[in-house]
Write a structure and sequence with these properties.
about 80 residues; alpha+beta; five-stranded mixed sheet; 3 helices; about 30% helix; globular
Length: about 80
Amino acid sequence: MIQVLFFAQIRELLGTAKVDMPAEGISTTDSLRLALAAKDEKWAKVLSSDKLLVAVNQTMSQWDTPVADGDEVAFFPPVTGG
Protein backbone atom coordinates (compact mmCIF):
# COMPACT_ATOMS: atom_id res chain seq x y z
CA MET A 1 0.00 0.00 0.00
CA ILE A 2 0.98 3.59 -0.63
CA GLN A 3 -0.17 6.00 2.06
CA VAL A 4 -1.37 9.20 0.41
CA LEU A 5 -1.72 12.38 2.47
CA PHE A 6 -3.51 15.59 1.52
CA PHE A 7 -2.79 18.96 3.08
CA ALA A 8 -4.37 22.42 3.33
CA GLN A 9 -6.84 23.30 0.57
CA ILE A 10 -6.37 19.93 -1.16
CA ARG A 11 -7.57 18.16 2.00
CA GLU A 12 -10.52 20.53 2.33
CA LEU A 13 -11.63 20.15 -1.29
CA LEU A 14 -11.37 16.35 -1.24
CA GLY A 15 -12.88 16.01 2.23
CA THR A 16 -10.20 13.62 3.45
CA ALA A 17 -6.72 13.85 4.95
CA LYS A 18 -5.44 10.49 3.69
CA VAL A 19 -6.16 7.41 1.63
CA ASP A 20 -4.34 4.14 1.10
CA MET A 21 -3.77 3.09 -2.50
CA PRO A 22 -2.67 -0.35 -3.70
CA ALA A 23 0.85 -0.13 -5.12
CA GLU A 24 0.04 -2.37 -8.09
CA GLY A 25 0.21 -0.41 -11.34
CA ILE A 26 1.63 2.68 -9.63
CA SER A 27 5.23 3.48 -10.58
CA THR A 28 5.61 7.26 -10.26
CA THR A 29 4.04 10.16 -8.42
CA ASP A 30 2.25 11.11 -11.65
CA SER A 31 0.76 7.63 -12.15
CA LEU A 32 -0.46 7.81 -8.54
CA ARG A 33 -1.99 11.24 -9.18
CA LEU A 34 -3.74 9.93 -12.31
CA ALA A 35 -5.07 6.86 -10.45
CA LEU A 36 -6.49 9.11 -7.73
CA ALA A 37 -7.94 11.52 -10.30
CA ALA A 38 -9.83 8.61 -11.86
CA LYS A 39 -11.94 8.28 -8.69
CA ASP A 40 -14.43 10.90 -9.86
CA GLU A 41 -14.80 14.38 -11.35
CA LYS A 42 -14.08 16.20 -8.07
CA TRP A 43 -10.82 14.30 -7.53
CA ALA A 44 -9.84 14.87 -11.17
CA LYS A 45 -10.38 18.62 -10.88
CA VAL A 46 -8.49 18.99 -7.58
CA LEU A 47 -5.55 16.82 -8.64
CA SER A 48 -5.19 18.35 -12.11
CA SER A 49 -3.89 21.67 -10.80
CA ASP A 50 -0.59 22.67 -12.36
CA LYS A 51 0.35 24.24 -9.02
CA LEU A 52 0.06 20.99 -7.07
CA LEU A 53 3.20 19.97 -5.17
CA VAL A 54 4.21 16.44 -4.20
CA ALA A 55 6.56 14.85 -1.66
CA VAL A 56 7.63 11.23 -1.31
CA ASN A 57 8.66 10.06 2.14
CA GLN A 58 8.77 13.69 3.30
CA THR A 59 11.13 14.78 0.49
CA MET A 60 9.99 17.27 -2.15
CA SER A 61 9.66 15.36 -5.41
CA GLN A 62 8.91 15.68 -9.11
CA TRP A 63 6.12 14.04 -11.12
CA ASP A 64 8.48 11.36 -12.44
CA THR A 65 9.70 10.32 -8.97
CA PRO A 66 9.39 6.54 -8.47
CA VAL A 67 7.02 5.29 -5.77
CA ALA A 68 6.76 1.82 -4.29
CA ASP A 69 4.81 -0.23 -1.80
CA GLY A 70 5.23 1.26 1.69
CA ASP A 71 5.93 4.82 0.52
CA GLU A 72 4.19 7.89 1.87
CA VAL A 73 3.17 10.44 -0.77
CA ALA A 74 1.82 13.87 0.12
CA PHE A 75 -0.02 16.30 -2.15
CA PHE A 76 -0.28 19.97 -1.19
CA PRO A 77 -0.69 23.45 -2.67
CA PRO A 78 2.21 25.91 -2.92
CA VAL A 79 3.10 27.42 0.43
CA THR A 80 3.60 31.12 0.90
CA GLY A 81 4.92 32.91 3.89
CA GLY A 82 6.38 36.12 5.06
